[in-house]
Amino acid sequence: MAQRLALQRLLSLRTRGPLASHGRAFGISAGRRSTFNVQDGSDFQDRVVNSPKPVVVDFHAQWCGPCKILGPRLEKLVAKLEGKVLMAKVDIDDHTDLAIEYEVSAVPTVLAMKNGDVVDKFVGIKDEDQLEAFLKKLIGA
């Protein structure tokens, strides 16, 4: 009975508490839907290789300092393109097989893929102007 009351109080806080008015802030924005984390090899095949849209693949690692700078920068620019390109994030420690298959020898490595083929690639960190040029080339703008 005490557990049920505690659960009811907790649930009522979610709808009435200080976070309730900011509930949408925790939702998925349109830009975030363009970016996803690859779950496994079949997910990569479905969402990247078989994608009808161009895909930027960010091979990164949690321990990689430059990755922590590049990732958000790239996500922001992909979000600005409003669905013209998708961004797949691949953690090389979780998906070593994909890193080997795509010959990733350093992180960050970013691939541009179109119709299942790698059409461009860079290794290391880039500034926003260079990233914009990379994305425009990928979408043909």
From TrEMBL:
GO terms, molecular function: protein-disulfide reductase activity
Keyword Cell membrane found: no
CDD domains for this protein: TRX_family
GO biological process: cell redox homeostasis
Gene Ontology cellular-component terms listed: mitochondrion
UniProt domain Thioredoxin: residue ranges: 24-140
Keywords on record: Disulfide bond, Electron transport, Redox-active center, Transport
UniProt-recorded name of the protein: Thioredoxin, mitochondrial
